[in-house]
Amino acid sequence: MTRSCEVPLFSALGRVVVLVADTDEALAFYRDVLGFTVLHDQATDGYRYLHLGLPGQEPAGLWLMTATTDRERELIGQQCGGQPLLVLYTADLDHVSRRLREHGTRVWSEQEDDDSRSLHFADLYGNVIIAVQLTGPSA
């Protein structure tokens, strides 16, 4: 049981790990197509630590991690078992849809309900990402 006067265990989300085959290729997609910014980019002992985030929401973000083992390479694009890797909120889903299509990104399952509009798309490796525009009273 959690008591309301207890200090939370965690203060923020740090990084979500995304396994990639090529960090430069993944960086180009997440930065140039989706608008993420580079928060940290450093190579140490031959390994690149590349952290990306959304403007205004630092330090939370993605850690694009190069797969180095056979097992990790098998998981690229499948690390969530076909379920969405991310849900990203937007104020303009039409703009997102146009931008994704202009860059040749696979888009599907465009939906609208009482309080939101959404679409699914895939990153370079097939990871499913959902873009959502809230339209209800809480938007």
Helix content range of the residues, please? 10-25%
Q: Uncertain segments of ≥5 residues (pLDDT<50)?
A: none
Radius of gyration: 17 Å
Query: What best-fitting shape do the alpha-carbon axes yield?
Result: globular
Q: Beta-strand percentage? A: 35-45%
Spatial order of strands in the largest sheet: 1-4-3-2
From the coordinates shown, what is the CATH architecture of the largest domain?
Answer: Roll
**Mind telling me the CATH superfamily name of the largest domain?**
2,3-Dihydroxybiphenyl 1,2-Dioxygenase, domain 1
The total beta strand count reads 8
Structural class by sheet pairing and helices:
alpha/beta
CATH class of the largest domain: Alpha Beta
Mean pLDDT: 93
Order of helices and strands: EHEEEHEHEEE
Ends: how far apart? 32 Å
Q: Compute the number of structural domains.
A: 2
Q: CATH topology of the largest domain, what is it called?
A: 2,3-Dihydroxybiphenyl 1,2-Dioxygenase, domain 1
Tell me the number of helical segments per DSSP (H or I, 4 or more residues long).
3
Largest sheet: 4 strands, mixed
Tell me what you see in this structure.
The protein has helices spanning 23-33, 70-75, 93-102, and strands at 15-20, 37-44, 47-53, 61-66, 86-89, 107-112, 116-122, 128-134. By secondary structure, the chain is of the alpha/beta class. It folds into 2 domains: 1-76, 2,3-Dihydroxybiphenyl 1,2-Dioxygenase, domain 1 (Roll); 79-139, 2,3-Dihydroxybiphenyl 1,2-Dioxygenase, domain 1, CATH 3.10.180.10. A hairpin with a 2-residue loop joins strand 2 (37-44) and strand 3 (47-53). The chain starts with 14 loop residues before the first strand and ends in a 5-residue tail after the last strand.
